[in-house]
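Fold this sequence, please.
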Amino acid sequence: MSRNYNKISIYLLVVLFTCNLKAQQLPSKSEILSKLKLGNEYWMSVNPGYGNNQWARSVYYIGNTEFYKIYPNDMYKQYTENWCKLNNWSLNGGTQARNADNQTCGQVYFDLYMMDSIKQDAKIVAITSSINNMANSNISTDWWWIDALFIAMPVFTRFGIQSADTVYLNRMHQLYKHTKDSLALYNYSKGLWYRDASFKPPYSTKNGEDSFWSRGNGWVIAAHARVLELLPANNPHRNEYVQTFQQMAAALKIRQRSDGFWNPSLEDPNEFSGPETSGTAFFTFTIAWGVNNHLLDSAEYHPTLVKAWDALSNTALQSNGFLGYVQGVGASPAQAYANVTQDFGVGAFLLAGSELLKMTKGELPEPGNFYIKSVNVIDKTHLSIYFSKPTDTTTAFQTENYVLSNEISILRITKGANDSTLLINCLELDLGKYQLSARWLHRCHNNCRSSREKRTIPTEKRIEELA
């Protein structure tokens, strides 16, 4: 009896130990990738108009661009390039803009410019003018709020590295020091930042605690990661950035909730209850980056990442790809809700998952790169649709595989000028805005043996453009 009892005890210990190890592991690459694709392609499908070039939408495209770098699906890059073209590669506020909000898009413009084998200077003319204007001035007081560090510092870093001109990196550090020390927005003892001077003591939360905003600190630590990623080892300010990054990571680690999220108010968990996605995503991204780049200890921070990704991918991300619990635009902690998302929240989620892909086991599959490249209006009852790859004739001609918004019936599908082009015959369209979606299509490859692409492919065309 005693011997059997000991066997059962040992068995239970082994099972519990095995379960604990499993609970401390990140999902495989393919599992993380599927979550990223789900969230990103849902966002693209419900936002076919690309959006403006202001900071909030620009942060989404920063995340989408980083996701593309690790998983080069041409559809993601085209979506970003269409946004850039829609906004004429320009800045909100013009080429002399000094407000960091208006420079956020420059991170995307610059990265796409650097991807080109033949450089097209028109892509960075506006952001170059804006950054040069600041770099060559004697003013270092622009960044009065901590969000500015994320949305502007990586732009300065990119110009500094690309040009090998120290004026950019030196001016960036002067602007940074104004925010950090002249305004005293960094609390050295706690390793966290006040959003701006109005939130420094004697200001406090409703429960008498210091006000450290989750997303605000997410902006800051993510800025450090994106600067350090490119900054040379011999830069005289690198050690300061590294030290601050490590202090913040340690402060954030001990403030993580048991469910993997961070509270909207980092020092006062009772100020606003419930999870918040945007801060959590930025913290996940930066801690993962710190581990990948040997600035944070893997054994110490791995459990933090496991819990955080589980929260983001299984609670914040819903089954249809909607990313919830994103606190809205603001300047301080506030309640987040399951049915609220934001573009910058999706961007932060993509940054987090893309960085986790670099540390997890398994191989990434090759992107299918099968998507709608364009839709053109022929007349009020005919559209032409151009795919990135040839389509097979079985699924491509099935009208039930296409949906035209406003419940416009699709009557017939025929082949266009080549194997990648189809002609759609539909009921008469009125003037207005429509969205065409295609799904369950097969692409034609290897002698037209098809491969099912399980995605909804969005695009749109304004019918006002009809002659």
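The two ends are 90 Å apart (CA to CA). The longest strand covers residues 372-379.
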